[in-house]
Amino acid sequence: xxxxxxxxxxxxxxxxxxxxxxxxxxxKISDNTxxxxxFSTERALVHLKEISKKPHFVGxxxxxxxxxxxxxxxxxxxxxxxxxxxVALNKKWRAGTTAQNIIAKIEGSSxxxxxxxxxxxxxxxxxxxxxxxxxxxxxxxxxxxxxxLAKNKNPKNxxxxxxxxxxxxxxxxxxxxxxxxxWAKNVGLVLNFxxxxxxxPSYMLMETNGGNKKLIEQFSKANPKYPVAxxxxxxxxxxLPNDTDLTVFREDGSIQGFNFAFIDxxxxxxxxxxxxxxxxxxxxxxxxxxxxxxxxxxxxxxLENLESNDDNVYxxxxxxxxxxYPFSWVLPIIIICLxxxxxxxxxxxxxxxxxxxxxxxxxxxxxxSLIIGGLIAFFGWKLLLKIHPQYQDILxxxxxxxxxxxxxxxxxTLAICFIIYKKFLKRDEAINLMVAPIFIWIxxxxxxxxxxxxxxxxxxxxxYGLIVLALLIFxxxxxxxxxxxxxxxxxxxxxxxxxxxxxxxxxLRILAVSSxxxxxxxxxxxxxxxxxxxxxxxxxxxxxxAVLIFIMASLNSGYTIDRxxxxxxxxxxxxxxxxxxxxxYNNKIDExxxxxxxxxxxxxxxxxxxxxSKYGSRVQLHKxxxxxxxxxxxIEILKDTIIGDDRHVDLSITPQRLxxxxxxxxxxxxxxxxxxxxGETLKKxxxxxxxxxxxxxxxxxxxxxxxxxxxxxxxxxxxxSGPSPSFYLYETSYDLFENMAFDITPRTETMxxxxxxxxxxxIIKKQINLD
Length: 771
Prior knowledge:
The protein is built from 20 helices and 26 strands. By secondary structure, the protein is an alpha+beta fold. Helix 11 (about 355-385) packs across helix 13 (about 430-450), helix 12 packs parallel to helix 17 (about 510-525) and helix 12 packs antiparallel against helix 19 (about 535-555). The termini are far apart.
């Protein structure tokens, strides 16, 4: 056994890493032979194919078709449905529309708080097919309801179904329901199904105004089969500006709930490639594995009071489920571990197994690996952006070959570790080398105890390190690598997926974080690696592997039918100057944009007030062009008067063509003491005497998206009397290709409209002066 110990240890580590990923989600899907009382992914896919045929964002004909289809399917289940039509405004996003929510209810047997099932049915503007985001949520709920109702079970709680509208425009459907629908007052818990990609495991993220203690306890009791959740994700999610419909329930209604969202294959997010064909079937099965047990459990659970002042640390372990304990334990546990660490050092020194100079010497390779690995990953990605400038056109930061880069930098980091440690990794020095990683992990956990308690489960690393250190000090075995490898399994289960999760969720620009995680884990496994005879060769192996994967990534860096190049073009008519421009958000021209911009377009925007889009994207290239006859909007000043200290203005803007959006931009910093669009008023916060204010010129006041029900946009506002303000109006229609005034050669099959920016659009810009 001693002869093969190293090989067995290596195999245990590789198997544990593999299982840490493969055990996160179902491996096969439920088909049409599945019992009618159970969820069937194949039955759900029938719905998905129907609702993801074409883009169906707010204001399109397809939007109405998808709405009608969903209503018909709910009615087939015997549910009475209603369409809530409500003007909704979001002050945070400064966006509005007339939302059309699809609502239904399963009546409960008791007068108790209701369970609400939530997703949205609109697709992202302007080219996304919306299969994953959030067609997957729609069909999960439709098929889940069918299976639930087939059991002929009478739930204790009402079950409200809300398929919200205009989520992509600013969570507007959720806003309409929470602030205007009478059923919202009785909601006790929300289950929301979302996506930011087209595959991978679905993560559970909570929304709560208080602590998570009761929610995580109830989640654990519901016992979903493949829970993927951690309090670290919960803590990070609370820090980030990303919102879902569930955020509105929490902020405006003080209603708590669970988000279930998958983020892998992030390159498909909001694009033409978010299609029926590309949605991972196992991912859809994973969504169902949350819905069905939670629907069964929360249909009868007490939802009256799920609020708590306390938080739990929680994380999932494959084959175990959820593990959780109070935040209050985090600091005491790290103090105990620190004391044990000091005691073990004293024993080790006393037994002459630990040598102080060698301990200090052990910090050199560990810190060197951390710094070099992190810097190479950080600057390596920047270098790749120079080598492959086309990556900058993928605005969300995760390229089609992103998984290759995660693997490449992981292999490169391991190569760096093995190469640096090859002179240090001798069997009799392993115990001394182990001290530095444990010490750094302890420092990390001390910081966590004070600043990020959600990552409190990182203490697992320290506990493992202390166990290994104790075995090395007190055990008389010469080779315990197999035992140490077995003990490392929980650590690998917890931390290995993070190496992939962070770059997928936050973009490849943070590959350095993954590199740091790898070095930290490598440090804990040093006693195992010290028993390997060919450390030098392992370094060469991983270096060769990294080079090979980088080559593979480079070979897959181009665009194909399945990995389409995103590009953009807009036509802007400045009605006041009678000038027109072609403009693009791409950094360079291609065969498609060249027909508009020619070979030598002007870099930058055509003026300083050009509207920006998500991720801070601005026009990169432009060229003046022929002025076309585009019918301009009718703008009327219905009221402009001074009342007290405020100037009250009422503007009516009526498009004379089919438009999708009107954006109102202020030329000056401005304070609004009241603000209303189409009869819906933005509320003031209790402690403020204004609704909102713009600190800089050129900022968007509001964007209103025209639904199928909207004919005009009436803006009523009050501002402090003083100098007369001026505004820019951008009236946008996504019909550039349909307008007969333009002769356009379509994109090739390896291209698609760039997401997150205004695209394929005709924009009329007009100035409004209030003299």
